[in-house]
Specification:
By secondary structure, the protein is α+β, with helices and mostly antiparallel strands. Helices cover about 50% and strands about 10% of the residues. The protein has 24 helices and 15 strands. The strands form 4 sheets. Strands 3-4-5-6-7-8 form a 6-stranded mixed β-sheet, sandwiched between helices. A 4-stranded antiparallel β-sheet has the order 12-15-13-14. Strands 9-11-10 form a 3-stranded antiparallel β-sheet, covered by helices on one side. Helix 1 packs across helix 7 (about 195-220) and helix 9 runs parallel beside helix 13 (about 380-395). The longest helix has about 30 residues, at about 455-485. It is elongated and about 155 Å long. The N and C termini lie far apart (about 145 Å).
Length: about 700
């Protein structure tokens, strides 16, 4: 059956009237007698059978079969993109006659990008004096030259037999004849009437399809992927690959299509270039590792470095990633549910640094070079960044850029080649614990627990943020307390008093801010900030009292700034009641805010002194009673009115609701007392009748 089908295919490629039908399992043949002179059309179009068109058609056929992208801007070159071991890779592809220096110069046999491989595919037919042997000899000649050899591999085919080469040329003619409908109508088939032109075109389209299948099948034989038949290709050529660099086991994968064969070649040459590259696609999905994948892996790796036993439970959806990416990269081992961290890269980089005599910061450029020792891995940048960032967590290092601390650390995609990793000095365990406790008691927020370089920097940033937030309010509080220290009788000697505690709180915040180096933060600055919080002398007052003083500084300072000091200064002039108001206020002002609220005491004192003033004024100026009207008797009623109803006295008016606020005032008093009394009376009037119109007058009475 196979021989018959092959023979029918051969006939169909030569005679347009013969059509292949059926399926692969049940083939058939059909004969169409159209009575159209197709050969005359082909003869007219034979002008297209030239070396340039033959090469162009072969390139298109190879591009379709191999799956590489033709770049028309570059003569004869293209790009084969593929996923190799989970990484995106590119091979440059050139199609031409290797032995013909006019077709492919020496520069055409070298990759444009020296880090890439170039696959040079020679032509499988004679277009002059050069054959497969001459192709191989030229590559061997280049291989023998001194100096660094380029990454170039040649794919040298056996040449087509005379019959198949004739089929190929016929395919070229038909392909170009049908490619331009206008020329087909006006030049190649112009001698035919409209009906015959249509029939000729249909016959040629059928033959084009049949010839294309035939030539593609023959190309597999020519390039060493199928058993060679003398009727199709020249026998004797078996060395199909010649590489200018040593590539082990580089042989055609017999039985594979051209697409898979090209990727087989890519696998061999890339494996020779990057022998240590891990297989990050063990399931052969053909999907490269994405930036989102490395972010997910890094999250799990970081969590493992922060765990006391260096293991962490991985969410179910991330376990395949950890097994396919983290494990091959030797970041750790993914068990059924847990990921166990490996310290391979910490030990590797420390060993490389020791061998290189490197001290201090380790740059990303340096670490990337060390990734390729002892053998090259050739990781993509985002995967290499994953390994380097994981090492930073393993060795507890912080990120710096141009000498300045990067806090927070950069995202994997934001890592620059000039970034570096620096050892972070850590505070002592006792200092760390003391700073944690004080932070929580003073600022009322949870402190981090792990004593690691990155977290120490994070904690220092939190401390400085709180200090910057509260320091202006603490400054205002000290200023207001000192401004009114005399009236409030504050004791600046008593360490437990409000004023002393406010000053110490401000000193604490200033001490913390003094450790802030800003953008030029040194590697010891974070440790200094944490240590400053832990070792600051709090005196006899516990941290919680400092916390209340600091956190409520804004509220207390605002209350002091808005208090009725003009009234309170007159309190002593109102005798024991006024002194009692001041004593109560002074008692609250002396103690710290945690013991008693000064804003509440100031408000209560204002109300109390107003009451004292009102009582004092009432005692000095008692109200003058209004004389009652005489009650009418029977003799006082006039009965001589025109009305028959004598006037009846009005019933006593019901007392109207009394106003609680005085609506008038006056009298003699001293100027000092008048200010306070008038202030209190007008405050109450404004509160109850804000729109009332009043009249104010006063004069000095000389005694």
């Amino acid at each position: 059956m196979g021989a018959i089908k092959s023979k029918v295919g051969e006939w169909a490629s030569r005679f347009p009237e013969i059509k292949e039908t059926g399926t692969q399992a049940n083939p058939g043949v059909r004969l169409e007698l159209a009575g159209v002179d197709v050969d005359s059309v082909i003869a007219n179009a034979n002008v297209n059978n030239n070396p340039g068109n033959r090469k162009a058609l072969l390139k298109r056929l190879l591009a379709e079969e191999i799956g590489f992208q033709l770049n028309e801007d570059k003569l004869g070159s293209g790009e084969l993109t593929l996923v190799w071991r989970g990484s995106n890779r590119v091979l440059e592809v050139v199609v031409g006659k290797i032995a013909d220096r006019d077709d492919l110069g020496d520069h055409d046999l070298e990759p444009t990008d020296k880090s890439l491989w170039r696959l040079v595919i020679s032509l499988p037919y004679h277009d002059g004096e050069f054959g497969s042997i001459e192709d191989a000899n030229r590559m061997l000649e280049l291989r023998g030259l001194h100096g660094e050899r380029p990454r170039t591999v040649a794919w040298i085919p056996a040449h087509l037999s005379a019959a198949r080469y004739q089929d190929f040329q016929r395919l070229v003619v038909i392909s170009y004849a049908l490619a331009d409908p206008r020329r087909f109508e006006t030049q190649y088939a112009s001698h035919l009437n409209a009906d015959n032109r249509a029939r000729a075109k249909a016959l040629l389209e059928g033959q084009l399809e049949s010839l294309t299948r035939t030539i593609k099948a023959v190309l597999k034989q020519a390039y060493g992927l199928a058993e060679k038949k003398p009727t199709d290709v020249e026998i004797g050529h078996e060395e199909h690959f010649v590489s200018l660099r040593d590539v082990p086991a580089l042989k055609p994968p017999v039985g594979q299509p051209l697409r898979e064969a090209a990727r087989h070649v890519a696998d061999k040459v890339l494996a020779s270039q990057f022998p240590a590259h891990p297989d990050l696609d063990p399931d052969r999905t053909g999907v490269a590792v994405r930036p989102a994948d490395v972010r997910a892996v890094f999250t799990c790796v970081r969590a493992a470095t922060e765990a006391s036993d260096r293991r962490v439970e991985v969410p179910a959806k991330e376990r395949v990633l950890m097994r396919n990416i983290a494990a091959p990269l030797r970041l750790g081992t993914q068990k059924e549910a847990y990921f166990e961290l490996s310290l391979h890269w910490r030990d590797h980089f420390l060993r490389q640094a020791k061998d290189a005599g490197a001290t201090g910061d380790l740059s990303v450029t340096q670490l990337t070079e060390w990734l390729d020792k002892p053998e090259r891995m050739g990781l993509e940048p985002h995967v290499a960044n994953l390994v380097i960032a994981s090492y930073a967590e393993m060795d507890d290092r912080v990120w710096v850029r141009s000498g300045a601390l990067l806090d927070p650390p950069p995202e994997l995609a934001q890592i620059k080649s000039w970034d570096a990793l620096r050892t972070q000095p850590l505070p002592d365990e006792s200092v760390w614990e003391q700073a944690q406790q004080r932070y929580e008691e003073i600022f009322g927020e949870k402190a981090p627990t792990l004593r690691r370089g990155r977290i120490v920097s994070q904690f220092a940033r939190q401390i400085l943020g709180q200090a910057r937030n509260y320091q202006p309010h603490a400054t205002d509080l000290v200023r207001e307390l000192e401004k009114h220290a005399g009236l409030l009788a504050l004791d600046d000697v008593d360490d437990s008093g409000r004023l002393a505690l406010a000053r110490r709180s401000l000193a604490l915040l200033d001490a913390l801010l003094a450790t802030d180096k800003g953008a030029a933060n040194s590697n010891a600055a974070a440790k200094q900030t944490v240590t400053a919080l832990a070792t600051f002398d709090l005196g006899s007052a516990p941290a919680a009292r400092y916390g209340v003083s600091i956190v409520q500084a804004q509220k207390v300072a605002a209350a002091l700034a808005g208090a009725a000091w003009d009234m309170l200064r007159l309190a002593s002039g109102y005798g024991p009641e006024g002194e009692a108001v001041l004593d109560t206020l002074r008692g609250v002002a002396r103690v710290d805010q945690r013991t008693a609220s000064l804003p509440d005491a100031l408000d209560a004192a204002r109300k109390a002194i107003v009451s004292v003033m009102e009582r004092s004024r009432a005692a000095v100026h008692p109200p003058v009673p209004t004389p009652p009207k005489p009650k009418p008797d029977p003799g006082s009623v006039d009965l001589t009115t025109e009305s028959s109803h004598p006037p009846v006295p009005d019933a006593p008016a019901k007392p109207a609701g009394r106003r609680s606020t005085r609506r008038s005032g006056g009298g003699r008093t001293t100027a000092a007392q008048a200010v306070a009394e008038l202030h209190a009376e007008l405050n109450e009037l404004a509160a109850t009748e804000p729109n009332a119109t009043i009249e104010i007058s006063w004069r000095v009475v000389e005694d």
